[in-house]
């Protein structure tokens, strides 16, 4: 439960979660919504949610899409 609160306390993680609730996106697509953070930071936040909520990830070629 603490992990959930820690996750939603971070505004970037909340925004990523909101984006993924609308449609599947890969890291580059998520990153397009943020002008001030790196792709590596987006990947870090995405991995956080994957560990906490079991988000689904699909690999197609070199691209990984989160849903």
Features:
globular; 3 strands; 15% strand; single chain; alpha+beta; 3-stranded antiparallel beta sheet; 67 residues; Arc Repressor Mutant, subunit A
Tell me the overall shape. globular
- Tell me what the CATH architecture is: Orthogonal Bundle
- How many domain modules? 1
Instruction: Give the strand order of the largest sheet, numbering strands 1, 2, ... along the chain.
Output: 1-3-2
Which percent range fits the helix content? 55-70%
Strand content: 5-15%
Rg is 11 Å
**Any low-confidence stretches, pLDDT <50, length ≥5?**
none
Q: What name does the CATH topology carry?
A: Arc Repressor Mutant, subunit A
- CATH class placement: Mainly Alpha
Described by strand count, sense and barrel closure, the largest sheet is: 3 strands, antiparallel
Structural class: alpha+beta
């Amino acid at each position: 439960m603490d992990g959930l609160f820690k996750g939603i306390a971070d505004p970037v993680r909340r925004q990523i979660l909101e984006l993924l609730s609308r449609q599947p996106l890969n890291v580059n697509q998520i990153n397009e919504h943020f002008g001030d953070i790196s792709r590596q930071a987006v990947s870090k936040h995405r991995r956080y949610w994957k560990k906490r909520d079991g988000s689904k990830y699909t690999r197609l070629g070199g691209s990984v899409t989160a849903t």
